[in-house]
Amino acid sequence: MWISPREAVAVMLPILITMDLVGIRAWRGKADWAELRMLIPAALLGIGLGTLAFGVMSDRLVTGAVGLIAIAFTADRLLRRGGAKGAAVRPSRPFAWLCGAGSGFTSTLAHAGGPPIMVYLLSRKLPKE
Fold first, then answer.
1. How far is residue 78's CA from residue 127's CA, in Å, rounded to a whole number?
2. At a CB cut-off of 8 Å and minimum separation 6, what does 108 contact?
3. Strand, coil or helix: what is 1?
4. What is the spatial distance between Cα 32 and Cα 6, in angstroms, rounded to a whole number?
5. Alpha helices, DSSP H only, in 27-128?
6. Coil, helix or strand for 32?
7. Of 1, 21, 16, nearest in space to 107 by CA
């Protein structure tokens, strides 16, 4: 709990890669390629930006960024709690790019790419699986 964010990333990365490979195998053939064609380029952009930012940010700034990311997604979740239930609507392309790039960026900084993608996928009202 007391190591720098850079060291924590290095320790966790092999474990998370292994988890991703198992997850990909479990969900093989169930991907929605239309969604992925929109999200993957944005995620790659976010990963690139995160890599650049991670290289120039101090440990203290990385820690602060991780905290702000956590607060932002918690606030989003709390504000959307009582949202109306409606039919599935395809979010706009800019929203998909924002969520994809946000996921790539936060994944690079703190292995926390799940919340931005979940914001996008939940807004699509897709089946939970």
1. 22
2. 46, 47, 49, 50, 51, 53, 54
3. coil
4. 33
5. 33-56, 59-79, 93-110, 114-124
6. coil
7. 16
- Which helix (H) or strand (E) segment holds residue 68: the answer is helix 59-79
pLDDT (tens digit per residue) in 12-66: 888 888 988 888 888 888 888 888 898 999 999 999 998 898 888 888 887 788 7
53 burial (CB, 10 Å; 0-12 / 13-18 / 19+) is: middle
120, 100 contact by CB (below 8 A) = yes
Q: How far apart are CA 115 and CA 92, in angstroms?
A: 18
Tokens 């918690």 belong to 74
Report how far apart the first and last C-alpha atoms of the chain are (Å, whole number): 33
- What is the predicted pLDDT for the residue at 97? 93
